[in-house]
């Protein structure tokens, strides 16, 4: 028991002595403590800067970054990488949106170009149709011109009227083929009218036409056909008042219907007027005021 009390007393004395120590001795103790700390534990330094920011290895004992705070730094690096890739994703998204907008613009331009191409195609088709119609029309015109160039053309000439009074009159004329192909003559009709004044062709009543002859014949190019007929009794539509004068003229109308080698049918009309006639003299005379007209029959009977 005595030993325990003496030890306690000694400790108390030491404490009292330490509290009573001079102030100058404190820095020395602190220096000693710092020296001891420096010998026992290295001082912390600034973490080294690493170029490789994607490194995941943790090497204990190097520094705070790679030892006790490694997990926190890894989390910070992961957040940094996440922010980086988020930014990359945002940039790529913007680029994708820009590409989509550009693609839409290109699509719109393509649609517009397609519409214009369609319009031009329609115009080209219409122009092609017009060209085809013009070509067909040109072929038709060429065919028509060829037919007109090759078809037969008739003419009447050398008309002669033999007047032997009101009871007998003879009429003769020559039909000539002036074309390049044969003419198939189907019929020749005539009418003779006495008159004092010129008779217009439009005034002729075609219902009074009478046949010159009742047979068909072929007239080659350059060929001539002499036609003559006798009119017994009074001339067609003879007016007694004119016949009484014993001095009148005869108007003769002739119509020739013929076909060409192409199967088309045509008609040739001619008319002539004689000079003064003295019935009963029996004198032949050559007619004057000759007229020729060609026409085509579109719907022949």
UniProtKB/TrEMBL annotation:
Q: Which domain of life, per UniProt?
A: Bacteria
* Keywords associated with the record: Membrane, Transmembrane, Transmembrane helix
Annotated TM spans:
83-105
Q: What is this protein called?
A: Uncharacterized protein
Per the UniProt entry, what species is this protein from, by scientific name? Sphingomonas jatrophae
